[in-house]
Amino acid sequence: MDSLGLTSIFLACVDAGSFSGAGRRLNLSRSSVGKAVARLETQMSVRLFHRTTRSQSLTEDGQLYYDHARRAMSELEAARNALASGRREPSGTLRVSAPLTLGRHVIAPLIVRLAATYPQLKVSMSFADRPVDLIDEGYDLTVRIGPTTDSSSIAGRRIGRQSMKICGAPSYLARRGKPEAYGDLEAHELLLYGRAGAARGWGLPGGQQQVQILRSVGRVRFDDLDALADAAAAGFGLARLPSWLVKSRIEAGELVEVLPQDDRSTYDIMLLWPKGPQMALRVRRAIDLLAAEMPAALR
Which regions form coiled coils (predicted)? Predict the structure, then answer.
């Protein structure tokens, strides 16, 4: 058996969680599976699994090989699908990560549209308000808001800009008054976004193009922007939220914008992907769609 066949058995072992489970999937005996994995380890001069009588787990080398082999197998599957179909269209699985609220409201509908256009395309999408490791976690694309860390192994492009609006419910403004300057905010109840128990302050324009960070001891804090918008609409205080998220609420009269923001209160939205000698067609189509549609979706 060649290296490709041995690698397929190795991947099945990881996916099934055991040699016996892989054997059932592949219609092989547990002994045959074990011998195939041992042969692969000999060929590469590394140990891929920690083995005990009751369990198995990947070694560090095994995890590294699995991540790269899984991506390579996905590319081979896409190539076979393209040749078999007789036409050049995206196929295989597109793996995307995006921030929770932006992903749910803006990114996901566009990716679903892409999948509807190409029947051979599969999509696996994850939402998380944390920076993901594209390569280690096996993503084709990730969307990030704000500055990114440069890396020689990551490519990217800006696909839009997110502007922020400070807003509150008419009932709150009637009760507490409408702030006329940034300094007035210190006397208001601010609804804050935060993760892991730490609230994130508001970055507001200051003098001479500087940005001041405003924090307040608010009674309401969330790690979800939809919940912040709901709390603001319920009259609990002022919230600083993306314009695309509150646009419909402002138009419906649920929220009122105060203290219009300027260009210093906008953030780049970046699309990142692993560098490689050749880009999969499904990734290229996703990049093109997001770059074309995001600016309008963010207004």
Answer: none
